[in-house]
Amino acid sequence: MIKLALASLWNRRTSAWLTVLAISISVVLLLGVERVREQTKDNFANTISGTDLIVGPRTGSTQLLLSSVFHIGALNNTLSWESYTELQQLPGVAWHIPMALGDSVRGFPVVATTTDFFDHFRYGDKQPLRFLSGQAFADETHAVLGAEVAAKLGLNSGDELVVSHGSGGTSFSDHDAHPFRVSGVLARTGTPTDVAVYIPLAGLGLVHGEYIRADERPDHEHDHDAADEPPVYTLSAVLLGLESKPLALRLQRQINTYKGEPLTAIMPGMALQEFWKTLRLFEQALLAISVLVVATGLLGMLTTLLASLRERRREMAVLRSVGAGPGTIFGLLISEALLLTFFGVAIGVGLLYLIIVLGGTAIQDTIGITLSATAITLNEWYLMAAILIAAGLLSLFPAWRAYRNALADGLSVKL
Amino acid sequence: MGSCITLNNLSFSWPGARTPLLSIPELSIDQGERVLLRGPSGSGKSTLLSLIAGIHAPAPGQLEVLGKDLGQLNQSARDRLRANEIGYIFQQFNLLPYLSARDNVMLSCQFAPARRMRLQQQHTTREAATGQLLDHLGLSRSHQQQPAHQLSVGQQQRVAAARALLGSPALIIADEPTSALDEAHRDEFVKLLFAECEQQNTTLLFVSHDATLDRHFPRTIELTRLNQATGGGT
Question: What is the ipTM, given to two decimal places?
Answer without folding.
Answer: 0.87
